[in-house]
Design brief:
Order of helices and strands: EEEEHHH
Number of strands: 4
Radius of gyration: 14 Å
Number of helices: 3
């Protein structure tokens, strides 16, 4: 049974990597991404990767799990491609992913 968490529905909590998908414009649907088998987060409560604002402890723990993940780069690339606005993906927060996008755009424009 899906659990409501704020404006999200958590599904498939412990099998596979998490992908956030829009839920009728009212939050995110978190579900495993079968393309990323072996993800370090597969056995961790997915709510850890979607900390509440100001929850530095959960963010730090999630980023620590990402740091040792064998598919961290694929996870980050997928989050950038999908333009994820929430959660820790590939070890980066939404703000950090935005900064990465902006710095990449600046480098591309300068080349």
């Amino acid at each position: 049974m899906p659990r409501m968490r704020g404006r999200s529905v958590v599904v498939g909590a412990r099998n596979g990597h998490l992908v956030a998908r829009p839920l009728s414009g009212r939050g995110q649907l978190l579900a495993p991404d079968p393309g990323l088998s072996g993800a370090a987060c597969a056995e961790v409560d997915p709510e850890l990767f979607f900390p509440e604002p100001g929850d530095w402890r959960s963010s730090h723990l999630a980023k620590g799990i990402c740091a040792v993940c064998p598919v961290k780069d694929l996870c980050l690339a997928g989050a950038l491609e999908r333009n994820e606005h929430f959660g820790i993906f590939g070890g980066l927060s939404p703000k950090e992913r935005d900064e990465l996008r902006r710095s990449g755009a600046r480098k591309g424009a300068a080349a």
